[in-house]
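Hi there,

I know you've been waiting on this one. I reran it after we fixed the sequence typo, so this is the corrected version. Both the input and the resulting structure follow.
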Amino acid sequence: MSTVVVAVVAVVFKIKASPRYLIVRRNQAQSGAGYWEFPGGKVEPDESPEEALRREIEEELQVTIDTRRLSFLLKSLHQYTNKKIEISFYLYEIPAEVELVLVDHDDFKWCDLSEMLGYKIADADVPLIHHLQKLQKGTYL
C-alpha cells in the first residue's frame, strides 16, 4: 500500500526592511497543537498552490495577499507518523507588521531566524528555516 502525499503550501511573511518573519502557533483544537509554523494549509484539487495560499491565509489570519507578489522558496517532503506531506514555501514581503485575526492559531510572533529555532517548530518547517539561514548568510552558490 503506497502512502498518499498531501500537497501543502505555506507563506513566509517577511518584513521588508527587517530580518523578522511571522510564525504562528497551532491551537489546541488542531493537529500539531502547540507547534509553531509558517501559516498555510492543504492545496485543494481544483486550485493552484498560489490560490491555495490566498484562501488559507484569508481563512486562518483574515489577511488578503496578492498572489503576484509571492516568490517560491523551497519544496520539501516530510513524513509524519500518519501521513506524508509535500510542502511548498513562498516568500511574501510586506512593509510592516500586518493586523492578524487568529482562527486556527492561538499565538503569533515576529522574530528573526536565530530566535525561531528556540520555539517548538513543526518538523516540516525546520528545513525552510535552515534554507533561509543559508540564504541570509549567502552560503548558497
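Quick highlight: The domain at 5-137 is CATH 3.90.79.10 (Nucleoside Triphosphate Pyrophosphohydrolase).

Best,
R. S.
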